[in-house]
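Consider the tokenized backbone below.
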């Protein structure tokens, strides 16, 4: 994804790359140092603001030099978090803060640093990159829904002609579905633990029994802008990640449905594709404009959905107090969200490259007057109840007339005129056309507002 698709997914690399994870680890280590000295633990004095700013510059200015330093160190330590600890110690020496070096990574297990780092990076990737890109797609869907709220079209239930709707209402359905899931994702928790080797604060109490370490840990984690999980094993249980990835996968399923529906509308001729200057549709057929945006989105959502499902399935389990299956699994979070982001990018572009072909919609409606059979048999039923008709089985009557055959406007009008129903009901039915038989479709679009 760093090759052909880099432009679409690059914003995620600030958070969900190896460098992004290590920057977050440095941030957690530095902020823990500051939190400990702020409370004057073990005879330390609080750092002044200038010292704190120089320390924070370690992660705010994290770049190529730090990346190279960590790569070299990890080749020796064979442990990524330990390499980060050594980096912070090294920089403390440069800053003349050797006296607090032993507070680096104090009483922490690697998962304390990692759980906070993953919570930070995933939170930032989702809220600052993924959700805004989803919002672009939803907004474009909403614009299409409002523009075409009155554009009648033939529905196709089971792929067959069915009661008409409007194109706007059908797009509004996707807006409604996506906004619901968007709200759930926006309300997600991002949790970390900070309680030592097996979640018991044992080493903390051995070093300083008079400190309320759970309260201090909670305050520290919440100061980072994430939530605190107080009851854990060595690892944070990852349930928040399982919930989040399932919701993003759900959103991807809806978007996949959108991609296949728009592709089908294009295939039916309901949408024409707007040519992009310089683009080639086929290497041998010059006339072609292929719906590649929607096909690309469809495929990337399938890859993303598969990875997200694997993440959710794997991360929910850890043997006894700790195993390392989560470590390698979490390194694919960026890949999963990257494919999803690429799909969102393609959908956002594709929705600006289609134009409604109302003539095609009108022609389809005009060729399927038999869809009014539903209206006719329903009106007849109402007339029977009201005592204005003696028809015994209106459904069977219309089934005999229309099932498996085309019925034109003239034939249908003659049939209605011969019905045993009241004059007012006849007038209503004779005024109906497939294009006008759209119920509240246009009004329903207002629900997305």
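A designed sequence for it:
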């Amino acid at each position: 994804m760093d090759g052909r698709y880099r432009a679409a997914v690059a914003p995620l690399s600030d958070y969900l790359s190896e460098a992004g994870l290590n920057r977050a680890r440095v941030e957690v280590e530095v902020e823990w140092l500051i939190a400990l000295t702020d409370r004057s633990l073990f005879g330390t004095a609080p750092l002044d603001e200038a010292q704190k700013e120089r320390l924070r510059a370690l992660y705010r200015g994290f770049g190529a030099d730090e990346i190279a330093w960590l790569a070299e160190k990890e080749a020796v330590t064979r442990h990524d978090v330990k390499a980060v600890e050594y980096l912070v110690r090294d920089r403390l020496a440069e800053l003349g803060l050797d006296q607090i070096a032993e507070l680096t990574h104090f009483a922490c297990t690697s998962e304390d640093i990692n759980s906070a780092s993953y919570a930070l990076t995933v939170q930032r990737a989702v809220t600052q990159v993924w959700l805004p890109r989803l919002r672009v797609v939803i907004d474009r869907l909403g614009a299409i829904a409002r523009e075409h709220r009155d554009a009648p079209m033939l529905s196709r239930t089971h792929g067959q002609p069915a009661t008409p709707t409007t194109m706007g209402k059908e797009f509004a359905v996707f807006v409604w579905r996506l906004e619901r899931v968007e709200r759930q994702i926006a309300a997600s928790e991002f949790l970390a633990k900070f309680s030592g080797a097996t979640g018991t604060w044992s080493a903390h109490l051995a070093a300083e029994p008079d400190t309320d370490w759970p309260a201090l840990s909670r305050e520290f984690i919440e100061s980072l802008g994430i939530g605190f999980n107080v009851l854990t094993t060595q690892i944070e249980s990852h349930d928040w990640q399982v919930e989040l990835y399932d919701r993003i996968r759900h959103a991807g399923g809806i978007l996949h449905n959108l991609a296949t529906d728009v592709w089908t509308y294009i295939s039916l001729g309901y949408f024409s594709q707007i040519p992009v200057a310089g683009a080639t549709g086929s290497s041998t057929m010059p006339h072609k404009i292929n719906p590649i945006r929607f096909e690309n989105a469809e495929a990337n959502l399938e890859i993303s959905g598969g990875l997200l499902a694997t993440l959710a399935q794997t991360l929910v389990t850890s043997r006894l107090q700790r195993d390392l299956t989560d470590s390698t699994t979490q390194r694919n979070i960026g890949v999963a969200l990257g494919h999803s982001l690429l799909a969102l990018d393609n959908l956002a572009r594709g929705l600006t490259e289609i134009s409604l072909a109302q003539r095609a919609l009108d022609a389809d409606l005009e060729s399927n007057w038999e869809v009014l059979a539903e209206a006719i048999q329903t009106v007849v039923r109402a007339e029977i109840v009201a005592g204005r008709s003696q028809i015994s089985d209106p459904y069977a009557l219309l089934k005999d007339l229309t099932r498996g055959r085309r019925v034109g406007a003239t034939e249908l009008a003659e049939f209605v005129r011969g019905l045993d129903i009241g004059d007012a009901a006849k007038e209503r039915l004779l005024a109906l056309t497939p294009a006008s038989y759209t119920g509240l479709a246009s009004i329903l679009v207002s629900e997305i507002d």
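The chain has 19 helices and six strands.
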